[in-house]
Amino acid sequence: MITLSASILAYLFFPGGMFAIIFGLLLLGMERIAVARFQGRIGPPIFQNLFDVIKLRTKEFLVPEDATNRLMFIIAPFFGFGGMMTAIFILPVSGVYDGAGASSDLVVLIYLMALPAVSHIFGGSSSGSTYAAIAVSREAILMFAYEITFVIVLFTVALQAGAGDGALFSLKGIVDYQVRNGSFVHDLKMIPAFVAFVIFMLATLEVPPFHIAENDGDVMKGYYMEYSGMPLAVFELTHALKLLVLITVLQIFFMPGLAGGSIVVNLLWYMMKSAAIVIGIALVHASMPSFRVDQAFKFLMIVPVFLALLSLGLVLFL
Amino acid sequence: MLSRYAVKSPWLFRINTGSCNGCDVELATTALIPRYDVERLGCKYTGSPKHADIVLVTGPITARSESYLIRMLDEIPEPRVVVAIGICPISGGVYRDSYSIRGPLDKFVEVDVNVSGCPIRPQSILDGVAQAIGIWKEKIKIFHKA
Amino acid sequence: MNSSLAADQTTALVYGHSAEALHIICLIIFVFCGVKALFHKDLKKILIYSLVGLVVDVRSLLTIDSPFAFAAFLFHVFNFFVCIGMMYMAARALEKAVGSNSLDDMRGAGRVVPRIGIPLAAGLFAMMGLPPFATFFSKLVMVSAFIDAGGYVSPTLLAAGELLYFLVFIRVIKIVFLDRYKGSPLQDREWKNVAPLYGLLVFSVIGGLIPQIAVKPFLPLAGLMGAPGYGIPPLTISWPLPVLWLMAGAAAVYYFGRTSNKKAGLLSSLVCLSAMPTLLLSSAGVYGLSFAVLILFMATLQFFYSVSYMEHSHHQYRFYTCFLIMISGLLGVSLSQDIYSTFFFWEIMSGWIMYLALAHEEDAFSVQEATKYFIFNYLGAAFLVVGILIMYDVTGHWDYGKMAENFQYTERMAFAVLLLTIGFIMKAAQLPFRIDYWMHPKPAPTPISGYISSTVLKSGPFMMVKIFFIASLGATATTFLPLDLIKHVSGWIGALTIIMAASFAMLTNSMKRLLIFHTVSQLGYVIVGCSLMTSMGLAGGLLHFVNHMFFKNLLFLCAGAVFISTGTDKMDQLGGLGRKMPLTFICFMIGVLSISGVPLFSGFISKWIIYHAVMDTGYIGIAILSLFGSVLTLASFVKFMHSAFLGQMQDRVREAREASWYMLVPMSILAGLSVLLGIFPGMALMPINSMLVDFNLQPLQITISSVTDGVDSINMLFMLAALSLGMGVAGLLYFLTRTKTRKTHVFVCGVDDLTPEDSHVSSVNCYEDAKKIIKGAVKLMKKTIGLKGDYVER
Which residues of A touch B (CB under 8 A)? Predict the structure, then answer.
């Protein structure tokens, strides 16, 4: 009973749920500030994305008359949100939280991380908008291109953490292995995989070099096009959680090192690392123009896949 | 309570109803150059009218754009604030009484803020947006009481 | 002394040379006759040519100096003459009726004069060596004689040669029976005039039903000319009761179902349902029984669905009868305890009955595609027959259990296992080459397409597991290597097929072809899992085996419902169906979520197990390819979903109506099962666990909703709780705000005169860049292995 209520608390408040949402929103705000600073602007306040969500709560919800399936249009955002809440719940934070039981597993992670894209696809597709349909096609094609990188990086990490004894799929196990034997980011063999994973992350988050599916410039807002009010807010929250999930996964895979023995110190260390990663993302965001979809597809199919395979080869044969 | 925080995130949407593009250029520079960075106020240009809070209308509403304007205004969720940018939507400007002009804007919708000028200065746009935010706050309160 | 030795040597040399020369001459005659028959216009001459060719072919039995071979020769030639005699008489009668001896004039005539046509068709099928005719057994005995003599090259060549003649016969059938007759009305013969024909037919069928007695006279006959025939394998077929029940049911449907389609469909459904209790009497293990239960369950649903679906078709009772017999063949495969009966039922399942059922619509396209598939199945069976007989020759038993006990690991045995594996994975439509032959035909009626996809093709992996199990029992550590290699290669074939079929599915514009491509691709997962033969791998493969049955059939039934209500199979002509057919759409969505492995739906957990199993075994390449395949699956189904069900409503769809209850009930049952198995995989894993024990493997640690693999485990109830809590939180946020909802238009920059056609993004417009790569691959395939036309793109 105690474990159950502890799990529910972990899910709803810390480190999942409330904490994750607010932290994720803050990270998004931080990213916007960083981009603004890189561009020589002042930028919004750090709570900006929180305000956005609050604002969206006050707005009316518009349902397009031509939406082919209204029920699906309304429930589509929930898929991604549920998936991300679950993902953040099962991810361990080194030195702070062990992840939800034995179910924290890499294969589950792949499918959970695909859920926001699925909800974009379902939502956009059912809205009946042409822009959304184009965005859906782009999202699916990008997903198709970046997922292969993710899969290869994931197996590389699993094999490296298995230390020649098969693959280790448990996220907790991967963290523990690195805490014992040093982070993978220090390992030369894993550097290409690290770079590939960062590219994957940028593509998943759709920040500029891969700002394609929801690019304001040509498909307006893509699959968000027809959403307004609360469902849009749910999408925003999902985006915040997705950022946090990706950052946490990056830390689990490559840099789960501890800062000290106490939970508070480790938590602060985790938050600092996250902030640093976000600022790195912002740097790329501010300095890169966007690819066209065909260029992005080619790039994603060649560069990160090659890097990830290089790492995999090194791990397997060295 | 909510309205206090909600107004910190006004999302802007532009509608060009046959303007000469002067005001649009000013609008673009206001948002995009660092000098008048409107993101400070939490503003963000949106691509979709369904996300908009503050609608910036430029142009004298030509006959051609009339039906588009009406349809588009319908696609903006309440509570919203309509801002007429430049002299054209306010009075028709130099195009006033032309055979192809259906303006002014307040024939079609209740205009909350008029920002005049031909073309307008960025500072006055910022001022107009700031005023619109104040009106928007009131509108949110009314909208939620109803 | 020396000179006599030299003379002996010369004699031997001359003798050897003359034997070789004879061989070569016979080969030339054989090929010449085959080619001649393949292109000849005169039916009677075709028959004569093929008789000469085949007898010359069979003659090579005589070079084997064994009485067994001689008896086999006599048996086979006798059966041949019975068939050819029957066909020759029928051909003459047909010629008289039509008034010409050219095949062109006989186009479709066979169906107009059924009294002459039936013996002719039966003779043609008998010449192919398919059950239930005596030639099936005589061919088996013949190949067995070859293998008994030690060779396995000549039986393989023989089988290849048979394929040439198979093409001859299938051509005649296509022209005489499946084309449309256009000539003047024909007069059928009186019964008494065709009586001798039917006498011969009955003779041949009796020989085919009780082969153990039919072969008896030939043994002493062979004995008269040499030593008595011995070594002929026992030819007694064991008929499981449910199979007999279904066959009787098929006969009943044929006689009582003529009046109405509804009656025939419901009767067939009832037959399948009522066959379930008879399974209790069967003594097949839990492995075969579970498959049998699924076969009957799916068949029940399929017939129920057909009641409404086949309404637009013709001669439904004929379709139901063929379909039922095909199912009984499949049931026989699952319940047989010996490999010999299995092969017999296998040939019933994938033989001429299936061909007739698939070509039911009788237009040129469906006949062409059905013929392709029939040829392919025949080829697969040729591999099987050689493999099975080698296994018999080495172990001396048909029975699976005894076969496993007496298994000796030799090179021949490895060859047999290889052949069997090829045969079985061919049935499962694997092997990434000529996918247009591999795949079952698109234009066949949807219920049978769905059934073949979901159930019949499973017989491949089903049998493959059995064979691997037997082979692994006989193998020791040193001899394990070839088997391991076979398993690894079949795993790779599965993984490559996943990618190939799924990427072709991205390209295609036809609903059913997309689903068929995905059948091939998903069966790749089953093959990958089963080929590992570890407890995780097998459990994953078998779980996917079951899951795939439900969701793939579900998708087929939904596509069929769409086809019925809109009359088109092209995705780009559809759009916005979700509004017109909401229930179909919900079922379809469940199918899509299941097939792409979204958590809480049934494909997820089986894929999870398969990936773990593959990685535990260390096959990283296979793991990467199969994981990548699931993204491709999602992408191609997004295309389908968007293009057909969502987006803007197209003109063709405006008149569409929701599917009838006959269709919706099976669909919702399958959808429910997909969700149920997604959350409680233990329901299927518990029987699978007891199968694992039967296969001498460690059972998995499972509960009703969770699976554990070493340190990793997954609990679907936990996932359900977590995901629904998340969705609940979002829902709560949404409902607490009590937002006002208003209806507006879709934003198109204010334009209001766009037609739905203009603003609909259809299937052909999706994924251009990915398609470019795939098109390149397809072009390469066209160049290298001769994939024809725009088969994939259409």
Answer: 32, 36, 39-45, 47-48, 50-52, 54-55, 57-62, 216, 219-221, 224-229, 232
